[in-house]
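step=encode ok
step=design start
structure_in=
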């Protein structure tokens, strides 16, 4: 499915966000925000219950024009296997939440739950680290287990209206895990073709992978030789604005440059970056056709505890998140929110806005910001004026990332 590039995809983490995205797409003209990402373990409750809407008809026999039907037909939907949560604890048990989950992932989550009940926290952490290595070593060594996991994952992805298939794979931080990821992608491509589905190459990295020069050299070499039309990368938890990420920034800059060169040699190649965090703008400027973050731009996984009723608002000028207290001060100073999108223009009093209203408004506002960013980048590319995009970062609070965009 063709989409205007650069393009932005929204990671949807709940049924409320999924419903809001459908509503937003029906009501707002956001041509560069036309795609979404759903995690595999969210799909059974978020997407699949609405599949029946695709067959609903009017009394005249025509298909009912529901928002979901429009999404299924016109949007690029990705179903991310999200297998990093076999390593991280946050959403691990979501893999055990539905019988529709691939058997190997469900059994893995259940085994962890049993051990967590029996072992002290420090012993459980050691056990889980070893169990995680064992799980992916067995996937590397056993073709039958690989095929079964990939087949069950693809079935659920395609049932959940995915337009492009994605391989379940390990969180890469070593050459051995990278080799496993390559094998998982090979099987995914083979099985996707038998299902007449469009495959991608999907590589999921631990943020420390960028510090391994040999590993990243192997990754770039693999991507260069790969014949997949779409390569999807994710660097879990990476935020290159952090002061200690000097080496990672240099490595990421080199990665962007190499991807750009690959695309220059073969313009049919496409690259996507999931959970892009603060790297969203420079990544789309230099190398990636599609970038994705959460609905608010906050890609860090939420820990335990109840979320604040009035969450953070994205400041498109500074390119950072502001808490609700800061937004209130901006409103008192300016009399309105300092952004010209329809959402911000419609908010005349923060005191009158409900928590539910703020929940939806700040998400839709964020998508308007991403639409504007993608347009700026598109113009910079069209006019061959990279300084236009670079200036946007230079004048923001994430100016440290200006080095990711080469000077003209």
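sequence_out=
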């Amino acid at each position: 499915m063709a989409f205007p590039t650069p393009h932005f995809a929204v990671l949807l983490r709940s049924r409320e966000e999924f419903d809001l995205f459908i509503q937003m797409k029906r009501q707002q003209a956001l041509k560069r925000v036309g795609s979404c990402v759903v995690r595999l373990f969210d799909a059974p409750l978020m997407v699949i219950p609405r599949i029946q809407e695709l067959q609903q008809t009017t009394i005249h026999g025509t298909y009912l024009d529901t928002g979901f039907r429009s999404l299924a037909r016109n949007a690029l939907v990705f179903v991310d296997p999200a297998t990093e949560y076999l390593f991280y604890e946050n959403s691990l048990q979501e893999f055990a939440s539905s019988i529709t989950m691939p058997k190997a992932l469900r059994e893995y989550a259940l085994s962890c739950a049993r051990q967590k009940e029996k072992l002290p926290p420090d012993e459980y952490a050691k056990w889980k680290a070893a169990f995680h290595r064992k799980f992916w070593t067995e996937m590397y060594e056993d073709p039958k287990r690989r095929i079964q996991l990939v087949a069950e994952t693809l079935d659920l992805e395609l049932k959940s209206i995915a337009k492009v298939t994605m391989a379940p794979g390990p969180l890469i931080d070593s050459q051995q895990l990278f080799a496993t990821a390559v094998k998982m992608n090979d099987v995914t491509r083979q099985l996707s073709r038998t299902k007449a589905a469009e495959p991608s190459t999907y590589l999921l990295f631990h943020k420390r992978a960028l510090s391994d020069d040999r590993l990243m050299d192997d990754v770039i070499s693999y991507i260069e030789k790969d014949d997949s039309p779409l390569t999807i990368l994710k660097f879990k938890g990476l935020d290159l604005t952090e002061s200690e990420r000097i080496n990672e920034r240099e490595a990421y800059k080199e990665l962007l440059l190499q991807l750009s060169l690959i695309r220059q040699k073969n313009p049919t190649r496409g690259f996507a970056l999931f959970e892009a965090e603060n790297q969203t703008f420079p990544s789309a400027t230099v190398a990636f056709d599609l970038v994705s973050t959460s609905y608010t731009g906050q890609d860090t996984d939420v820990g335990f505890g109840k979320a604040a009723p009035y969450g953070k608002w994205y400041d498109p000028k500074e390119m950072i998140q502001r808490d609700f207290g800061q937004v209130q001060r901006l409103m008192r100073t300016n009399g309105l929110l300092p952004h010209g999108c329809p959402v911000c223009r419609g908010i005349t009093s923060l005191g009158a806005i409900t928590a539910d209203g703020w929940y939806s408004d700040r998400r839709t506002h964020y998508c308007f910001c991403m639409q504007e960013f993608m347009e700026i980048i598109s113009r910079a590319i069209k006019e061959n004026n990279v300084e236009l995009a670079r200036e946007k970062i230079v004048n923001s609070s994430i100016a440290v990332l200006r080095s990711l965009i080469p000077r003209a």
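step=design ok
step=annotate ok -> The CA atoms of residues 5 and 289 lie 5 Å apart.
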